């Protein structure tokens, strides 16, 4: 048996395709990104080593603060909408007396399976200043309020982030719903018997027990917000002007627009570091809560 | 006190249905306007069911633009990718979960790292790599990276399933004199059918809708996948909302139908994904 499962040929044969593909296509580029961030390089000619120059340049890039601000605002919208509202909906929907739960859950999830391009174009139509659904609804209620939603420099980032929040709400909802359902019902029953109201019971019993789910949801929302790109590309192309730039937008523009591959790699490194730090902070915050609860 | 609690209860449930509308009505509005002309969309009937169903929008959308081509590309790329991910990930997972050798734990962790790397971070070296491998503007430029990116998650899920299988299966196969390859395909593969189905659906959905790589790595019009091809309709169709709506509806239908058929599997896949990554 030991020989059977220790068959050298079989081990190599089973491992080789996956390991080779992964190493060449995923792992090697990770190393390359870090390595190339210290070079000035246009992707074609000889790269020249410039030390930390790319990072110094990045620090002084006026687009960096715009991009970071947009990333965090995007993340904020996702957290408030998907986790805030999502948790609320999940708690109500988990109640077994609610009718049509299956239908509700399916309907919430349908936007998730659509292509992001379809969703962005649908919302371009929704936001259309003259004929879009949103301004039409205001008109239908007799309000003369109408806006060019995507063209206002201060608020267009919210309009764009909302599209992502709307589309992937169902995903977060499904995770949160599964989280609520995983908690044994007698926990809440005990709290109710002790005289706590339903929402008090949720606040003190259900939500703290969903810590692991929340941790996962927060990491997804915040890293997705900081890395946002496609919605901006399709809906406003980073504009008006450069007001909707994000970190990923900077990476793509510098690499494939301006051929500054080394600089774009430096921005990528920054993105990895920010994502990593955010993940660590979220883990720490939720683990400390657990300590307090004990 | 109880009376006060009862009112919010009805209100809460109404809220669930209110969000139901927010979630679905934009899509219903899209399907409606795909069957209208501009006059009806803009002026006479912006919200409701079309007055007369203009199916010609669909005929035009299908005939005038490259929609069948893009759909074919997406279908081909997604199918090959899904098959590749399932086969390679299953073999890899089998090697690290069941076969006996020294560094399998190290190799497993090495693979997991890939699950946490955002795609946009490695896209620059990847684009250059694709060029160096002479894959630019071939199906391989997408299929090979898609398979590679699908491997970590699929492998870890299969690994979890494989750890739970009793070793007696292999033992009896060994006694019967079946080769390890025969045993793998005849015994292990069938046992993992539920996990394979889950990964297949998730992978197919993800590949069909993938945007960033397809946007960066493909410039040839004939090789565009659906999400990329659709961006270019926008310009051509700016004045014809009905036609644009028809294109978007056709593009969305396959995945919505797939989801409605496999609701359970998709939800199970989600819970698996959160427990693997969490």
From TrEMBL, chain A:
Species annotation: Cohnella luojiensis
Q: Where are the transmembrane segments?
A: 12-31, 72-94, 106-126, 157-178, 216-234, 261-286
One BP annotation, GO: transmembrane transport
User: Which membrane topology term applies here?
Assistant: Multi-pass membrane protein
In this chain the ABC transmembrane type-1 domain maps to: 68-282
Keyword field contains Cell membrane: yes
Q: What is the protein's name according to its record?
A: Sugar ABC transporter permease
Keywords of the record: Cell membrane, Membrane, Transmembrane, Transmembrane helix, Transport
Homology family? Belongs to the binding-protein-dependent transport system permease family.
Q: Where in the cell is it found?
A: Cell membrane
Q: Key word Transport present in the record?
A: yes
Q: Which InterPro entries match?
A: ABC_transporter_permease (IPR051393), MetI-like (IPR000515), MetI-like_sf (IPR035906)
- A GO CC term attached to the entry: plasma membrane
Regions annotated as coiled coil? none
Among CDD domains, the record links this protein to: TM_PBP2
TrEMBL record, chain B:
Q: What does UniProt give as GO cellular component?
A: plasma membrane
Q: Name one GO biological process term.
A: transmembrane transport
Q: Which Pfam families match?
A: BPD_transp_1
Q: Where primarily located?
A: membrane
Cell location? Cell membrane
Residue stretches making up the ABC transmembrane type-1 domain: 71-262
Q: What PROSITE patterns has UniProt attached to this entry?
A: ABC_TM1
- Source taxon at top rank: Bacteria
Residue ranges annotated as transmembrane are 14-35, 75-97, 109-130, 142-162, 183-206, 245-262
Annotated keywords: Cell membrane, Membrane, Transmembrane, Transmembrane helix, Transport
Which InterPro entries would you find in this protein's record? MetI-like, MetI-like_sf
Q: How does it sit in the membrane?
A: Multi-pass membrane protein
| Similarity comment | Belongs to the binding-protein-dependent transport system permease family.
The name under which this protein is listed is Carbohydrate ABC transporter permease
